[in-house]
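Agenda item 2: copper (II) ion complex prediction
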Amino acid sequence: MRFLGVALVSSAVVLGACVGGAKQDATPAAASTPAAAAPAAAPAAAGTALPITGKTWEVKMVGDGNAYKFVPADLTIRAGDGIKFTVVSIPPHNVAFDPALVPADVKGQLDANMGPNKLGELSSALLLNIGDAVTISFAGIKPGKYEIHCTPHLAMNMKGTVTVTP
Ligand SMILES: [Cu+2]
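Presented output:
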């Protein structure tokens, strides 16, 4: 409070003492402390992604007009590993887990680990271009077998499984 008061007073003095150009410099400086504090609180409230601590596996997302698939479709990894899903052909693709099939005590962390621009809960960003990729961390995810699918191609059976071992 005391610091903010001093900052506001000093910026008011600068504003009062100068004309034109000085105003643009003084205003952001006085506002920077509260502005910097605000974004830091937001991610914590939404759940915090845990970084990959093990191996990052590669899965291709492939379509040929008749069949759409993850390659490999079934993968066994260890908790702490990650998987990078890359679009090879016929986008768009994404990676999603059915919330009804993911245990309640896994959902929150897995959702937080799914990268930016999610389509929804447990549903990754839609990857629109060949070469686009999303990397999902399985850090903090308890061992089990998790079904994945591609939302745009679910009806065409673009599905797979990720088995997480301890
Ligand atoms: Cu797809």
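Discussion summary: Residues 1-46 have pLDDT under 50 and may be disordered.
Owner for follow-up: CH.
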